[in-house]
Design brief:
Strand content: 15-25%
Largest sheet: 4 strands, antiparallel
Number of domains: 1
CATH architecture: Sandwich
Radius of gyration: 16 Å
Strand order of the largest sheet: 2-6-4-5
Shape: globular
Number of strands: 7
Helix content: 40-55%
Structural class: alpha+beta
Number of helices: 6
Order of helices and strands: HEEEEEHEEHHHH
């Protein structure tokens, strides 16, 4: 079982909160194992849980669904952060065309969206930490959009591989994930 006391398997947001607050892991956190392609949140469905991926290779993609049904990754979440940002901004669901899907299987902590809202309201430090993480996530979305628009497919793939390695703390990104990303970026055949 994973514990917040283990730096080897921890999530950066949770570890930072624990160090600054001096508290042990809240009882509202549970460990969770997920497989590749599991959906953590589906558009229009109410967000009931938020997930904090850990260092055991796990990465979650925020995917935007296009009008033609295809999808593109707009951000990746790994051991540095969490899913479910709309919960902290007053939203109940993910944006209409965004789904949250496991890219690399692994472990995470999860808590109810309501528990996170309550902790967010009680702790100035947690609120500051989550707002800084939101800023970093929005920056990643903007950089991803710019990269997808202005860089070649090879540069996009390199950027994506570096992000996956960083998010999973792994030196080798999943070949299946790399193949999938390459297929997503490939131009449509006429």
């Amino acid at each position: 079982m994973l514990t917040l006391q283990s730096d080897l398997h921890g999530n950066h947001c949770l570890a930072c909160f624990r160090r600054m607050s001096g508290k042990r892991s809240p009882r509202i956190l549970n460990s969770f194992s997920f497989a590749r392609n599991n959906c953590c949140a589906i558009r229009v469905a109410r967000t009931r849980h938020v997930y904090f991926p850990t260092r055991r290779p796990s990465s979650i993609s925020l995917l935007h669904t296009m009008e033609d049904g295809g999808s593109i990754e707009i951000a990746a979440v790994g051991r540095e952060g969490m899913t479910g940002m709309p919960v902290l901004t007053g939203g109940e669901t993910m944006p209409t065309r965004v789904r949250v899907q496991v890219q690399c299987p692994g472990f995470a902590y999860h808590m109810s969206a309501q528990a996170l809202r309550e902790q967010f309201g009680r702790s100035d430090f947690l609120r500051r930490l989550m707002l800084l993480y939101m800023q970093a996530l929005l920056t990643q979305v903007a950089q991803t959009a710019a990269c997808n628009r202005h860089h070649s497919l090879n540069k996009q793939l390199c950027r994506w591989l570096l992000i996956e390695i960083d998010r999973t703390a792994s030196r080798v990104a999943s070949d299946a994930a790399a193949d999938r990303r390459h297929a997503q970026c490939a131009p449509a055949k006429a």
